[in-house]
Amino acid sequence: MTEAEYRVRCPSCAESFAVDAAMRDDLLAAGCVLCGAPLSEADFVPLSGSSSTS
């Protein structure tokens, strides 16, 4: 996995973890890896200090 760019917090199980852009896209499509609840754009917060230029 590349450097984490986002922090996601599941609104259903309240689990929080850091993900990169590719994993973010997968989670938006498939839902939380722990409980399966759907995730939305609002559940992801960019990490400060992220140096993504793409």
What characteristics describe this protein?
54 residues; alpha+beta
Explain this structure to me?
The protein has 1 helix and 3 strands; from the N terminus they run E-E-H-E. Strands 2-1-3 form a 3-stranded antiparallel beta sheet. The chain has one domain (6-46). Helices cover 19% and strands 20% of the residues. The protein is α+β, with helices and mostly antiparallel strands and 54 residues long. A hairpin with a 6-residue loop joins strand 1 (6-9) and strand 2 (16-19). The chain has one helix at 21-30, and strands spanning 6-9, 16-19, 44-46.
Q: What is the number of E strands? A: 3
Largest pleated sheet: 3 strands, antiparallel
- What integer value in Å does the Rg equal? 11 Å
Number of helices: 1
What form results from the Cα inertia axes?
Answer: globular
Mean pLDDT comes to 90
Count the domains: 1
Q: State the share of residues found in helices, binned by percent.
A: 10-25%
Structural class call reads alpha+beta
Oligomer: single chain
| Strand order in the sheet with the most strands | 2-1-3
Q: Identify low-pLDDT runs.
A: none
**Strand percentage, roughly?**
15-25%
Order of helices and strands: EEHE
How far the N terminus sits from the C terminus, by CA atoms, comes to 17 Å
